[in-house]
Amino acid sequence: MMRHAGLALIPLPFQGEVRPGDDLVEKLRLALRQQKLTLREGDIVVIKHKIVSKAEGQLVELSRVRPSRAARAWANKCGGDPRLIELALAESRRVVRKKMLDKRRGVLITETHHGLICANSGVDLSNVDGGRRAALLPADPDGSARRLRRAIKKNSGVSVGIVISDSFGRPWREGLTEVAIGVAGIAPLDDFRGKRDSHGYLLRASAEAVADELACAAGLVCGKLKRTPVCIVRGYRAGAAQGTAQELLRRAQDDLFR
Amino acid sequence: MMRHAGLALIPLPFQGEVRPGDDLVEKLRLALRQQKLTLREGDIVVIKHKIVSKAEGQLVELSRVRPSRAARAWANKCGGDPRLIELALAESRRVVRKKMLDKRRGVLITETHHGLICANSGVDLSNVDGGRRAALLPADPDGSARRLRRAIKKNSGVSVGIVISDSFGRPWREGLTEVAIGVAGIAPLDDFRGKRDSHGYLLRASAEAVADELACAAGLVCGKLKRTPVCIVRGYRAGAAQGTAQELLRRAQDDLFR
Fold first, then answer.
1. Are A34 and A69 in a shared domain?
2. Contacts with A117 (C-beta within 8 Å, 6 or more apart), sequence order
3. CA-CA distance, A169 to A161, in Å (whole number)?
4. Does residue B2 surpass a pLDDT of 70?
5. Of A51, A160, A171, B209, which residue is the least packed, with the fewest Cβ within 10 Å?
6. Which A residues 146-165 touch B at CB under 8 Å?
7. Which residue of A has its CA nearest to B191?
8. A98: domain CATH number?
9. Residue B256 and residue A171: Cβ atoms within 8 Å?
């Protein structure tokens, strides 16, 4: 039997801060050199969205935010920062759930402009600058992924897959897991429907969200306290497939939990 | 700067079928030998639940199932197999959603006896024997994980972490991802709450469901058509932490989507 190659998850720490206007591909090149690594054809580069948001200037000075009455009321109730709630509402297309869990804790689940469903529209203070500015999600994460892929190809001649990730909570289960909010150069879903298993059984409902699984795998080496915003996944057969993270969003009419 | 080691995801294909009463640790030993691999201290062995269910005899001959009137009615409506629906209901503690998406497609989301929330209580015909028998989830996946961990320790002297995984759908997003339904020898949640990021910002809501991320990482190399029910995750700092997959289940009072 042939020896299976397996995958490698290679963490890529960054030195210094990513700032608005920074060239992420140049930062990536420096980080790779530091680790004596080069990208290979077919590598998948998983990037925490926070550095994409920072490079694209998706940062908002909290002191400049004027919270609406609705944002103030909700913040007051759940003990949150009204300016953060204001940003979360401004970044949303729709509130999915806004509910107190008990007398002190509340949750605001929104659908963002992109169609992502998550807490507070993904607006977040962590790993920015200690609480002065909030990071929004990238305006068009699939577009960001495509641009990064093109720039890496131009720079190094290598075709890679890109996954831009964020940590989302989910119903029913504790803890955050990483999800793909932007994708380029890979198919986000591996569709088994219509194929037969080794017993001849026809698979009916099996599409695997591999872009989310790639994001989760990277989450194991990136973490929140390690200054490691990038993970290279090596050995995954990406093929020449193309796709976007939009394909991972369930249409409202197929969803039972809106 | 120190070179980061990263993780390896090593697929472990099995030859032949797993049958009720089989010794999974012996099967694992053979599969490792075939690949010229040995387990190392701290390895995490991610195991698709299906082979655990099979070894434990959690298989039901469909021809012996007598569907209730409720199961027949629902199956008739959504075009499913009434015997499968009967098993899904029997394995459930509660129906979370039972709804037609359109005139032909219906979804039955249940809470299982274990407290897992998933489609059809995890009852499944794929990768069993072509549709004659259905596989139920293991009766006590955390117990199964603990027993496997102990047996591996006894057999090889090595302490490993165990994750037993299944593929679940989720609200809002397309595609299945792997989740940890049984865990031993690792902490399923990596809790950042109360820690500070590199900018001094206090993290408030950040616990990462690493057991689910380990399951997802393994999903990238296992797949549904590859006869590869096991993946070894090497290089993950598991520590001496202990935990169960029950810790991943959100309490009803903290959940907005029941």
1. no
2. A96, A109, A110, A111, B171, B172
3. 25
4. no
5. A171
6. none
7. A175
8. 3.90.1660.10
9. yes
Cα A178 to chain centroid, rounded: 7
- The number of C-beta contacts closer than 8 angstroms across A and B is 255
Inter-chain residue contact A174 with B207, CB threshold 8 Å:
yes
Comparing alpha-carbon positions, the chain B residue that sits nearest to A97 is B256
**Predicted pLDDT at A109:** 95
CA–CA distance, B253 with B236 (Å, rounded to integer)? 33
**Cα four-point dihedral sign B24, B50, B45, B230:** positive
Q: From CA B175, how far away is CA A179, in angstroms rounded?
A: 12
Please check whether residues A50 and A115 belong to one and the same domain.
no
Using one digit for the tens of pLDDT, what is the confidence trace for B179-208?
Answer: 999 999 999 999 888 888 888 888 776 799
- The domain boundary, picked from B87, B104, B137, lies at B137
State the ipTM, two decimals: 0.95
Q: How far apart are CA A46 and CA A186, in angstroms?
A: 12
B40 & B157 share domain: yes
The CATH number given to whatever domain includes residue B212 is: 3.30.1330.100
For residue A193, pLDDT over 90 is answered with: no
Taking residues A74-82, report their average pLDDT.
91
Kindly state the average pLDDT of the residues A177-187. Answer: 97
The boundaries of the domain holding residue A116 are 59-137
Number of domains in chain B: 2
Residue B211 falls within a domain, yes or no?
Answer: yes
pLDDT tens profile A207-251: 999 999 999 999 999 976 678 999 999 999 766 678 999 999 998
Phi and psi, residue B123, nearest 5°:
-75, 135
